[in-house]
TrEMBL record:
This is Bifunctional ligase/repressor BirA. Keywords: ATP-binding, Biotin, DNA-binding, Ligase, Nucleotide-binding, Repressor, Transcription, Transcription regulation. It catalyses: biotin + L-lysyl-[protein] + ATP = N(6)-biotinyl-L-lysyl-[protein] + AMP + diphosphate + H(+). PROSITE patterns: BPL_LPL_CATALYTIC. It holds the Pfam family HTH_11. It comes from Peribacillus asahii. The lineage of its organism: Bacteria, Bacillati, Bacillota, Bacilli, Bacillales. One of its GO terms (molecular function) is DNA binding. Residues 23-42 bind DNA. HAMAP family: Bifunct_BirA (MF_00978). InterPro entries: aa-tRNA-synth_II/BPL/LPL, Bifunct_BirA, Biotin_CoA_COase_ligase, BPL_C, BPL_LPL_catalytic, HTH_11, Transcriptional_repressor_C, WH-like_DNA-bd_sf. CDD domains: BPL (cd16442). Belongs to the biotin--protein ligase family.
Length: 325
C-alpha cells in the first residue's frame, strides 16, 4: 500500500491537470518541506515518470510508465472512494486472495488490489484465467455494502455494466454481456468477473469483485486452445490502450452505478444489464450440473437469475450454468 504522502503528491499533479505546479504548492498540499518534495519527485523519476522541472514555474508530469501502479492509477482518477487506496504487486497468485486478506485486516471500502501478472488466476467455477504480465487488467475491489445477503449477486451484474460502459467510452467497440459475468466483443471473451463474499449468516462483511480484462494481448499471446474464443481490446480495436486509463474508467463507472444502486435499488441496473445482454430474446443452450436446457432467454430476475423459456412454454430459472449462444 503506498504512503499517504505519495497519494497526496499524485493528487496534486492530478489537480494541476498537466500544468506546472510549484514546489511550494506541492509542499503545502502534502504537508512537507520543499526538500522532501524534491525527494518524492526523484522517487517518481526512478519509477519511470518523466517529470519536467522549470525554475519559477515548478513541476509537471510529461509521461508516465506503462504500468498499473498506484501512482499511475491515481493520476487523474475521478472517483470519491473507489481506488483511493491501492495495493500493487508485480506478480501474485491471485488478486482475490490478497483482497480477502486486506479485507479481513479492515481495509476500507474502495480498496483496490491490482497486479501486473497472476500466476493462478481463477474465473467462474474455478476455471483457470490466463493473466500474463503487462498485457491486461487483473484487479480486485473491496466493497462493503449494507445490503441483505441475497442481493449480493446483483453486484456482479452491476460490475459487468460498468465494464461495458468503460470499454464503450474508451474505444469505439461495442461489447456485450453474456450471462452471468462474461464480456464479449465479436462473440469472443474479453473480460471475466468473479464476485466473492465475506459474510456471516445475517450480514455481509465485504463483497470482493475480481475483474480480469484482456487489454493489449496479440492473438498469438493466447494459448492455442483460447485463440478462437478469447480476444483483447487491442485485437478488436487495432491499437494498444493504456491499462491504467481502463482501470480509471471502470472505477468511475462502477462508483456511479454503485451509488445509483444504493440509492434506488437494482431496477435501473437491471435495465442497463438487459440492454447490453448478447443473448436476450435469442435461443440459447444452458448446461447445468443436472441437465441441458435449450430455450429463449427472457431476461433476468432481481436476484440475477436467468429466465429461459423452453419450446413447451415452460420457464426455467437458471442459477448456475454454462451458456452457449
Amino acid at each position: 500500500m503506498q504512503s499517504d504522502v505519495r497519494t497526496k503528491l499524485i493528487e496534486a499533479f492530478s489537480t494541476a491537470n498537466g500544468t506546472f505546479i510549484s514546489g511550494q504548492q506541492i509542499a503545502d498540499y502534502i504537508g512537507c518541506s520543499r526538500t522532501a518534495v524534491w525527494k518524492h519527485i526523484e522517487d517518481l523519476r526512478t519509477e519511470g515518470y518523466v517529470v519536467e522541472a522549470v525554475r519559477n514555474k515548478g513541476y509537471r508530469i510529461i509521461t508516465t510508465p506503462e504500468k498499473v501502479t498506484a501512482n499511475e492509477i491515481q493520476l487523474g482518477l475521478q472517483t470519491k472512494i473507489l481506488g483511493k487506496k491501492v495495493h500493487y504487486e508485480e506478480s501474485v497468485e491471485t488478486t482475490q486472495k490478497i483482497a480477502h486478506k486486506l479485507s479481513n485486516e479492515g481495509a476500507p471500502e474502495g480498496t483496490l488490489v491490482v497486479a501486473e501478472e497472476q500466476k493462478g488466476g481463477k474465473g467462474r467455477l474455478m476455471r483457470p484465467w490466463y493473466s500474463p504480465k503487462y498485457t491486461g487488467v487483473w484487479m480486485s475491489l473491496i466493497l462493503r455494502p449494507s445490503i441483505p445477503f441475497h442481493q449480493a449477486p446483483q453486484l456482479t451484474l452491476l460490475a459487468a455494466v460498468a465494464v461495458v460502459q468503460a470499454i464503450e467510452n474508451i474505444t469505439e467497440l461495442k461489447p456485450q454481456i453474456k450471462w452471468p459475468n462474461d464480456i464479449l466483443i465479436n462473440r469472443k471473451k474479453v473480460t471475466g468477473i468473479l464476485t466473492e463474499l465475506q459474510a456471516e449468516s445475517d450480514r455481509i462483511h465485504s463483497v470482493i469483485i475480481g475483474i480480469g480484462m484482456n487489454i493489449n494481448q496479440k492473438q498469438t499471446d493466447f494459448p492455442e486452445e483460447l485463440q478462437d474464443i478469447a480476444t483483447s481490446l487491442a485485437i478488436a480495436g487495432g491499437q494498444n490502450i493504456s491499462r491504467a486509463k481502463v482501470i480509471q474508467e471502470v472505477l468511475m463507472r462502477l462508483e456511479a452505478l454503485y451509488e445509483l444502486y444504493l440509492a434506488e435499488g437494482f431496477l435501473p441496473i437491471k435495465g442497463l444489464w438487459e440492454s447490453y445482454a448478447v443473448s436476450l430474446g435469442q435461443e440459447i443452450k444452458a448446461t447445468t450440473v443436472n441437465e441441458t436446457i435449450v430455450g429463449k432467454a427472457l431476461g433476468i430476475t432481481d436476484a440475477g437469475v436467468l429466465l429461459l423459456e423452453d419450446q413447451n412454454g415452460k420457464v426455467h430459472s437458471i442459477y448456475s450454468a454454462d451458456i452457449h449462444i
